[in-house]
Amino acid sequence: MTATNPRIVTVRQNILKANDHTAAENRAAFAAAGVRVINLASSPGAGKTALLERTLRDLAGQVSMAVAVGDLATENDAARLRQWGAQAEQIVTGTICHLDAAMVQAVLPRFDLAGLEVLFLENVGNLVCPSSYDLGEAARAVLISTTEGEDKPLKYPTMFNTADVVVITKMDLADAVGFDRDLCRENIDRARPGVPVTELSSRSGAGLDAWFAFVRGQGV
């Protein structure tokens, strides 16, 4: 067991080094095109696709947007997003539980980056693996829903510690599920002190103005 550990560590370091190199290439391409790239991460069912649907709908005609969607299988989420008139390209990861920079780089030729203001990268639903992989994004939004409980930031601190903003979703269900808002925000601050937090409901539209400001690069 002891003899194999160094090899495992070395392989992981090499994988992440290669990923970081590709992420730097992606970031340079995004900067050259003048497109803001936002990586959305969460556990499955936290509401990433619903938030993107609402964003594409409400900002249509105001912000030029597109989405690259990561899933283990199916193109269901990309099909949902295309209904709102935006380009959405599916990245099927197979058995891999996260997007990596090479996957993103491979799909970029399908987009007219120069014609975009914002490109969303909807990561695979997972609060573990995506935390280690830089995609070349300008910002990372980590979502947590009121239906998941308040302790996710403590269970998955590495993911929350990489966030540029934490988005609490499904606030329209908060009372029904007994969501403790203060405890959740306290746990977020323990995992990532001082990180901006915004609360919203994609269904009702409450709190979306702060999210839209973040999308535009104006803070929350």
Automatic annotation (TrEMBL):
Occurrences of domain CobW/HypB/UreG nucleotide-binding (ranges)? 37-197
GO MF: GTP binding; GTPase activity; nickel cation binding; zinc ion binding
Which example biological process does GO assign this protein? protein maturation
Q: Which InterPro entries does its entry note? A: CobW/HypB/UreG_nucleotide-bd (IPR003495), Hyd_mat_HypB (IPR004392), P-loop_NTPase (IPR027417)
Key words, A-Z = GTP-binding, Hydrolase, Metal-binding, Nickel, Nucleotide-binding, Zinc
What the entry lists under Gene3D superfamilies is as follows: P-loop containing nucleotide triphosphate hydrolases
| Domain of life, per lineage | Bacteria
The portions of this protein that span the membrane are none
Pfam families associated with the record: cobW (PF02492)
In the UniProt record, the signal sequence range is none
| Keyword set includes Amino-acid biosynthesis | no
What's the family?
Belongs to the SIMIBI class G3E GTPase family. HypB/HupM subfamily.
| Listed name of the protein | Hydrogenase nickel incorporation protein HypB
Instruction: Provide the species name.
Output: Deinococcus soli (ex Cha et al. 2016)
